[in-house]
Amino acid sequence: MSSASVRPSASPAPSLDSVTTIRSDGSRFFLHPADSAGRFTLLRRVTGWGLIVFYLSLPWIKIGGFPAVFLDAASRRFHFFGWTAAAQDMWLLFFVLSGTGFLLFFLTALLGRVWCGWACPQTVFLEQVYRRLERWIEGDAMARRKLDAARWTAAKVVRRGAKHAGFAVLSLVITHLFLAYFVSVPALWSMMRAAPGEHGGAFLFVFVFAGILYFNFAWFREQLCIVLCPYGRLQSVLIDDDSLVIGYDTRRGEPRGKYRREVTRAGSRDATVGDCVDCHRCVAVCPTGIDIRQGLQIECIGCTACIDACDEIMARLKRPAGLIRYDSLNGLGGRPTRWVRPRTIAYAVLLLIGGSAAAWAVSTVRPAAVGLTRMVGSAYFFDGATVRNQFFVRLVNKQDTPQQLLVQLRDVPAGVVAAGLDAPVALAGMGEEVRPLVVVVPRSRYAGAFHFTVVVRDEAGTFELTRDAEFLGPDPGLLREDEEAHEGPNRK
Amino acid sequence: MSDPAHLAPPEDAFRPHAYDGIREYDKRLPNWWLWTLYLTIIFSVVYWFYYFTTGVGPDDRTTINREMQRIEDAKLASVGSLNDEVLWKMSRNPVSVDAGKATFTTTCVICHLASLRGKAESPAAVGASLIGTKWIYGGRPVELVGVVSKGTLRGMPAWGPVLGTRRITEVVAYVLSHHEPGEPVEIVASPAPGVK
């Protein structure tokens, strides 16, 4: 562990006991990973850009009259690919969040940290967008290190300034598109053309969020993965010796030996030397600054750069690829990988149960919602001739087209009269209406509290919503006593 | 998962304690982390002094009272100009009356019936008659607004929070359109026989 280096750009040696990017004096060692090239780099580029295009395009694609993903928090309507959830459906978020987390755990048990290296926005945006810009403006890793160490000349100011200006613009673009998910693209355009003061909240949000993104992608980078991200910290409980990780084949690579040309030319390989020639390419390309040959480490985000780097060297040495590869820890140790094991079985079963519950939950969502509340005030009203309960029925139209809803009662005892149910309630698109519902029981028919059901249907009868309600009233025995006391015992 | 080639770090790399056999490295935290911590400590001290100690910033009670006062003022501003005269004028304004009729039809007809006669028309009706000169809780326009907003103990719901001031004044204007200014107001104790 070096203290403040004489050459600040010199790479501290990766070690299992320290984080390469945090020097022993607490200062940050800023990494400049070398370029990697190979099949995984290409695959990741394609995947990454596919995800970016997906993210950028969703607010522009209209499905069912709304953007594909439109989280209209202001009107409490959330649109996903033609399906609309209202605020009343917020409880479904439980399934979404827990299901996503659980799916992630399941995938991690099987495939290790593939999320980090292939799909996480941190890696995708950093590797495919920000680092590309940096590479284009400032050059490769060696050039960037030289620029770091150079004095502040005009050329350096221009280069650095251009890069940071580019980073700022990228951060603003990403933030504005993020905002589009919440306000939709047309509203975003009009907000952008208006003065900042008119949409102070949105302006402040964009300013702050873009600042955070800029700070993250310009400087913070791998510190988020290493220090902040909880997923990285959870790895030690999520993976085991049969999960896929990126690892170095110690049995094949050790002991490391310098490449001896005459040995390979002869066609046979020196059995006393392993395939690893200690070229340090895997270390040079690592974006978190580790040496994967030291084993699986928390900093490794599974970005596959070291795989491509080593494969490239192996190809040049005419040795088989895969000295660093995707394999389980058991696999790297020469033992078979168990894909089906208690952990994965348990995860799969729980995922099935959760998925079924989620599917059922979503199937209960209807194009309308109803809320039934008792009116504020007394639970019941007795005026001598009738016992009366008063309710509010709140009808919510979750579609953006008008609809008519019928309100009816079910399971009501004979003689009970309900007022407020005759005409269908007309609801505007995405509209809500509150209607009073008054349930009256004549004294002669009153036999105590009872449960009934409020049923809301559309006119065509395609869906039905029910709410349970309870009719409350005085103790019927007391009513009878009171009546007999005033009217005489023989009076009905 | 430890690499067998990894040599044990020197003893001075560890802190002196061991909890359940777990040793702790003696490493410096990253400076950005430390400074974030220091800044949050400073912020909390400043916050504490600003809001709770020196009284420069408003405390929670003051803030809530201010907000409540602001709401009351807003309510007063919309209602404050309400008096009998304004309401009678509204009751002669077709726009207000039509809007009030729409609200009445969806909200009030259930109990007071479409003819506004309520119990006077049918004993099964829940609401009192809004036609004629007999009133239970007062017949002046401002009193009507009060009854509709706050409700009564006998079951008239408090419509203030549900409808809002504007719709209530429109509904009252609609009711008043069936009356003449200056007609007598007779307070009766109860709307129907049988109430004890």
Describe the model.
The complex is a heterodimer of chains A (492) and B (196). Chain A is of the alpha+beta class and 492 residues long. Chain A has helices at residues 39-57, 93-111, 114-119, 121-138, 141-149, 154-183, 185-193, 200-220, 222-228, 230-238, 250-253, 261-265, 281-285, 305-316, 329-332, 342-363, 476-487; strands at 62-63, 66-67, 69-72, 77-80, 83-86, 244-248, 324-328, 368-374, 381-382, 386-397, 403-410, 417-419, 425-427, 432-442, 450-458, 464-471. Chain A folds into two domains: 1-365, no CATH class; 368-487, Sandwich (Immunoglobulin-like). Helices cover 43% and strands 18% of the residues of chain A. The longest helix of chain B has 23 residues, at 31-53. Chain B has helices at 31-53, 60-79, 84-91, 94-107, 109-112, 141-150, 160-163, 165-176; strands spanning 14-19, 22-25, 134-135, 186-187. Chain B has a two-stranded antiparallel sheet. In chain B, α3 (84-91) packs across α8 (165-176) and α4 (94-107) packs across α8. Chain B has two domains: 11-53, no CATH class; 77-187, Cytochrome Bc1 Complex, Chain D, domain 2, CATH 1.10.760. Chains A and B meet through β10 and β14 of A and α1 of B.
